[in-house]
Specification:
mainly beta
């Protein structure tokens, strides 16, 4: 019954634009377009990193930065009852397109691998079947990574995308497919 926002810009009393990239704002219950400036959560303040994206799974908010993931338990209807459940260091996402929610959990990919968090414990690495050391890293260094999920075939697709407006050529095109059923 709430909406969570990150990467917020707002105007202060003097009409100056302010950016709050380390802050997660949340709406009033049942009112997704009402976001008081006092409704916020700070995670990883002054760490030099910005929030890339947010997603939810199992009454948790997963807040992604480039190098860190914060798992916030928002089961309690009152923000005073919310708790930071876990901080996953040295892992994160470079873009919103590299984060995907599936029926099995939240999946994301970065240059280190592809991971899934199913609502419990630590994430599972899905790239372990790729047995050549450095293959994943060399395939995805210097590009954006997109992750998608086809619920009918239960397949996860991880592909390379262009960093800017430049097109990825056929030579640079690359795609990994992970079948959730067969692993």
């Amino acid at each position: 019954r709430r909406v969570f926002y990150t990467g917020v810009y707002y105007k202060d009393e003097d009409n100056n634009s302010k950016a709050l990239h380390d802050r997660i704002f949340y709406s009033q219950p049942g009112r997704p377009d009402t976001i008081p400036t006092s409704n916020w959560v700070d995670l990883g303040i002054n760490d030099g990193d910005v929030f890339i994206g947010l997603t939810s799974f199992a009454n948790r908010i997963l807040a992604f930065k480039r190098n860190t993931i914060y798992i916030l338990n928002v089961t309690n209807p009152s923000p005073m009852g919310w708790a930071l459940e876990n901080v996953i260091e040295n892992n994160g996402a470079n873009s919103k397109s590299s984060i995907c929610r599936t029926r099995y959990g939240v999946v994301w990919a970065n240059t280190n691998g592809c991971y899934m968090w199913n609502g419990q414990g630590l994430p599972t690495e899905l790239t372990t079947p790729i047995d050549v050391p450095g293959t994943w890293s060399s395939d995805f260094t210097g590009c954006n990574i997109s992750v998608g999920y086809d619920s009918i075939s239960q397949q996860l697709v991880v592909s390379k995308t262009a960093l800017s407006n430049s097109a990825v050529t056929d030579v640079d095109s690359l795609c990994y497919i992970y079948d959730m059923a067969t692993k």
